[in-house]
User: Which sequence fits this backbone?
């Protein structure tokens, strides 16, 4: 934690330096409450500190194209510690879109946050089961700008929120499914991909995680529910051209 304190001595403690932070001193100081900061405080020296992510003498602002924390490279930085998660992410539609230069596509920090990263079991975490749909996935999949730009359904979040699963989440259930339960968390793929968790051929296995004994007939049911009666996009009806995942790439 000593190294973190050294950085904060300027970036939090010196007004002429702190005021240059794009998101302010509160954002910089929030690292101490993060999963990484808590681990360092507990004496786990292998946990990430400032220089592990930003670099030391070679550090650049995140918006610089070749910076470790630029949108196109942040996953490579996280992979140094989270190699297994990075392998899953690298085969996702989000990663494939980023490889093509699409900076609208999600990367690690879009979902997990930056300085204030918390574990998924932490109730305050953006990726906690009770918060991930509304605070993470909806940021893109309920965005009018992004859904219009890429031809995505704009009601994906709302039709989930109005479903049994969505209502249970809003009621405080932590056992009911959320977006990641079906689409997966890192290896998110188009429903047209035969290896996708929401491909028609794999739905029995995906649904069976929560519903033992689920069969093909079980998977015909809607997951996203439109209360007005219009048929909402589901894993069984969504085509490769209308998939909210595939069109980002």
Assistant:
């Amino acid at each position: 934690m000593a190294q973190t304190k050294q950085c904060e001595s300027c970036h939090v403690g010196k007004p002429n330096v702190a005021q240059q932070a794009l998101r302010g001193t509160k954002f910089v100081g929030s690292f101490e409450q993060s999963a990484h900061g808590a681990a360092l405080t507990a004496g786990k020296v292998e946990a990430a500190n400032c220089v592990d992510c930003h670099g030391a003498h070679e550090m650049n602002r995140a918006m610089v194209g070749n910076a470790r924390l630029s949108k196109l490279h942040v996953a490579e930085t996280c992979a140094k510690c989270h190699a297994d998660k990075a392998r899953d992410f690298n085969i996702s539609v989000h990663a494939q879109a980023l490889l093509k230069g699409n900076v609208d596509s999600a990367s690690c920090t879009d979902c997990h946050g930056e300085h204030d990263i918390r574990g998924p079991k932490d109730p305050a975490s953006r990726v906690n089961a009770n918060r991930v749909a509304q605070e993470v996935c909806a940021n893109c999949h309920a965005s009018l700008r992004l859904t219009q730009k890429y031809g995505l359904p704009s009601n994906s979040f709302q039709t989930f929120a109005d479903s049994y699963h969505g209502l249970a989440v809003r009621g405080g259930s932590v056992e009911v499914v959320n977006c990641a339960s079906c689409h997966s968390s890192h290896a998110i793929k188009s429903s047209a991909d035969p290896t996708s968790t929401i491909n028609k051929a794999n739905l029995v296995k995906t649904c069976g995680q929560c519903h033992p004994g689920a069969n093909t007939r079980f998977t015909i049911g809607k997951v996203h529910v439109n209360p007005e009666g219009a048929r909402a996009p589901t894993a069984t009806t969504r085509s490769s051209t209308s998939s909210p995942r595939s069109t980002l790439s």
